[in-house]
Amino acid sequence: MTESCSCSCETPAPPAPAGGFWRKGGWLLAALPLWALLYAAALPASRWAAFRLLGLSPASRLGDAVAFFLYDVPKVLLLLTLVVFAVTFLQTFVSPGRVRDLLSNRASWTGNLMAALFGIVTPFCSCSAVPLFIGFLRAGVPLGVTFSFLVSAPMVNEVALGMLFAMFGWKIAALYAGTGVAIAFLSGFVLGKLRMEAHLEGWVRDVLKAPALGEGAEARPSLPDRVDAAVQGVKDIVGKVWPYILVGIGVGAFIHGYVPQAFMAGILGRNAWYSVPLAVLVGVPLYSNAAGVIPIVEALLAKGAALGSTLAFMMAVIGLSLPETVILRKVLRPRLIAAFVGVVATGILAVGYLFNLIL
Questions:
Q1: pLDDT tens digits, 263-309
Q2: Which of 121, 162, 243, 333 could make an S-S bridge to 83, C-beta 3.0–4.6 Å?
Q3: Per the structure, how many domains does the chain have?
Q4: Residue 196: inside a domain
């Protein structure tokens, strides 16, 4: 009787492992083929909607612009979802506390290089600029090294890097990453040598004098926790940036359909000496993000804009955005803000001219 009861109690057990399997991310086995199917269907669906459903002519500027918009919206959103999921999952293996520990008490150039590289894989947004900045300084990270991280984290954006690779190939993605890391390294190194700690806001210097609080042991997330974090990252990031993506794609669609190729090549082409500073000046005041600016980059390149000018535009939008500068004003005095913007802008200009010259 006891054995039969024991067997009958154990018989319903199989659903639990199945639930655990789906809980641990087994649903990805169904989600990934569905993603691939939707991505493959985006182009024919956009052309059918623009030219059959709406009755627009493929030869018209309006038809060309609408087809671009209808294709890029699902394409960019699908790519963004996949990249954010993968990046957020990988970021669960990177501890900001350990990053700070590794960067503190390092030799200047070593710390700058490590900070620039860590910036690629560490979560960062404009709203986190102030707490990250103070947290790094309180942990003993030198000011110049902190600036290398501060430049690299938004500029060499992991989402932008993944989308550039998916849309343009590894060469452009590698150029973007390599030049971004170089700018971050040199900017932090130069700012560190300028010894501008006195130009931090007074309240920041007072905070740095206080003893740092221990963070305690950091728990290691389980696999289901990492999957949950990746799903939440998709909800947070895609849910927050989709309006900017639509605006960016709208601008890209207008450029694609209505701006003559010769006109764009004349303004942002490699032969125009002013193309790089113009790209930076246009990019700085734009309030956008990596995902929102990539459709504009796609349209600029398709219309004959030079790669160096286009990279300078993208780096200015992401790495020298006006909102981030305004937020950093809470902790930096105007002279240090000016030095930060000037050094980073000089690096972006150098990258733009270099690639316009050699490519």
A1: 777 788 877 888 899 988 888 777 666 677 888 888 888 888 888 89
A2: 162
A3: 1
A4: yes
Q: Is residue 249 part of a domain?
A: yes
Domain residue limits at 312: 96-209+220-358
| Residue ranges of the chain with per-residue pLDDT less than 70 | 1-26, 94-108, 122-132, 135, 139, 157, 207-219, 287-290, 323-324, 327
Would you say residue 112 lies in a domain? yes
Query: H/E/C letters for each residue in the chain?
Result: CHHHHHHHHHCCCCHHHHHHHHHHHHCHHHHHHHHHHHHHHHHHHHHHHHHHHCCCCCCCHHHHHHHHHHHHHHHHHHHHHHHHHHHHHHHCCCCHHHHHHHHCCCCHHHHHHHHHHHHHHCCCCHHHHHHHHHHHHHCCCCHHHHHHHHHHHHHCCHHHHHHHHHHHCHHHHHHHHHHHHHHHHHHHHHHHHCCCHHHECHHHHHHHHCCCCCCCCCCCCCHHHHHHHHHHHHHHHHHHHHHHHHHHHHHHHHHHHHCCHHHHHHHHCCCCCCHHHHHHHHHCCCCCCHHHHHHHHHHHHHCCCCHHHHHHHHHHHHHCCHHHHHHHCCCECHHHHHHHHHHHHHHHHHHHHHHHHHC
In this predicted structure, what is the pLDDT of residue 14? 46
Q: Which residue has the tokens 């990934």?
A: 32
Q: Phi and psi for 217 in degrees, rounded to 5? A: -70, 140
What are 80's two structure tokens? 């963004």
Note whether residue 74 is domain-resident. no
Calpha distance 225→126 (Å, rounded): 26
Check residue 4 and give its pLDDT. 41
